[in-house]
Here is the input.
Amino acid sequence: MTNENDLKRGRTALVDGTSISSLVDRDKREVSTRLFSDPEIYQLELERIFAKNWIIVGHESEISEVGDFVTRRLGDDPVIVARRRDGGIDCMLNVCSHRGALVCREEAGNSSVFRCIYHGWIFNLDGSFRGAPFKEEMYPDGMDASRLGLRKARVGVYGGIIFANWDESAPSLEDYLGDYKYYLNLIFNKVPNGMEVLGPPQRFVINANWKTASEQFGGDAYHAGQLHRSLGALTGGSPTNPRDWQLHAPKVSTENGHNIICFDLGDMYRAISGGKELSPIEKLHILPPSGVPPEMLPEMLQLLGEKELEFLATTPPGNGGIFPNAGVWNMHNPMYNGVPAPFLSFRTYLPLGPDKFEFCMWVLVAKGASEEYRDLMRRSTSFMQGASGFIEGDDAEVWPGQTSASRGYIGRQGTLKYWTLTGEHKPEGWPGEGNVHAGFSRDDPQWNWWQRYFDRLEEKV
Here is the structure.
């Protein structure tokens, strides 16, 4: 049995003596199902993953004006994300430095200061301590205000998305995203003025472990034709036809555990054009990339290079994961009338315990888009995603079952199996970086996600 001092020195094992390394078999490519429900593992994740990696907390268009703020969670810690007076963004622990009460209780708003309702301590927009009631009477010998500010995380913004990280020694956000930036640019930086959110994020709680969603969004296309048969009925997709479910679409995995599936749009264009061969520019005029209304297409054509435009017209980045707990969606799917419609979003799976997470999804559109197009993006995204969507409705039926099944004495002895890999097969002329897995969709990106997960859980990075 490992004692408490051993755990504090290195935490190489759980309290019952199980080594962390034994929870994964890197040779057989199997992962213990115990990871979906174990409370001790959850605490290690908060310490080694959510406190040391870049985690999405919002979008800069949510807090566009000085004093704008939103309250979110960074791991299981409540935070305030606010626009400072100098225009910068801060992410602060939403816990009063006096007696540990929540400082800000609203989900969003605009304020000049943050005031704790418990004893009335006041903090500036940058989290610094501003004052307290009866300060001279309560603290006649003075107080060191420099020690009383709200704890602040590092903040980085990419493609308008706000990331935060508690770890001062972690690599920069740019380095953390690495090769993945190329694909993010084609999703969120494809028009000169960027994207903005369509209102507040959709948020709801799912009774499942956060990793059930995160590892699936780590590149699992294999489930689509089986679990999402209701979507197939709408689109004409057959569960037995791999092409209907993008099972031959190239996948990309990167060093830090990020991944993306790049959808082959050939069949969609052939259906729209009646089989006529189209140039990349003609394709983009017929079906502008998600979030870009037709009238703003010339701006995109001027911004991007020839290779990027051809990529967007033929095999654009569609959906994928940002390690550890986020995902992006960028694609077209038929609406109820059968006409392809765009949807563009990013989401996070925020842990609320070993058996519960909050699903948080933002819908985006190009800044300056018409109200008509903005309404289309709202309707099309909600039709497919989120609490009312075809896709998430199916997924949210599976994730809780995975979690509850892992709690039993026998169930937690099982393994998740990632036995088949496509390997590195980068198509000739592929413009992006990372490991490209062209061919039938197998387990490469998901297995890469788990390897990065265990590297961090075992503190090998």
